[in-house]
Amino acid sequence: MELEYRQEGDYLVPDIEMDAQPEGEIRKYGLLRKNYLEENKGGIFTAMVLSNRLAGHLLMVQEQAEERMDILIKQMAEAEGVDGTLEAEDQMLWVQKMENIRQRAEEIVLEEIIYS
Predict the structure, then answer these.
(1) Alpha-carbon gap, residue 114 to 2, rounded angstroms
(2) Do 74 and 66 form a contact (C-beta atoms < 8 A)?
(3) Segment of 47-51, 63-67, 83-87 carrying the highest mean pLDDT
(4) N or C terminus: fewer CB in 10 A for the chain?
(5) pTM given for the model
(6) Domains of the chain, residue spans
(7) pLDDT-derived band of residue 2, with 50, 70 and 90 as boundaries?
């Protein structure tokens, strides 16, 4: 890749042309991944920004994390018997159990996908 430079005062600045960004909104898991890369993997983060791959990577990670969350929540709820029957009998207990399941699933997703 051959870069062209332009003069900015006393400095030569690379003239980088950005390609079209992928469609989609970067939400919670994409932003968490971005912060992780920026704070802990500076070289990888910088390379992705300069090669215009960061947004695509963040959207891919976000999609994977959301799909994994859905799968884990469903599997954990089935394994623990948290279903519509419990919701009808004791709604507060159902909410507590589902929130606990969601928190545990999120811990797994963060460890497996976001911070890896």
Answers:
(1) 33
(2) no
(3) 63-67
(4) N
(5) 0.79
(6) 23-114
(7) confident
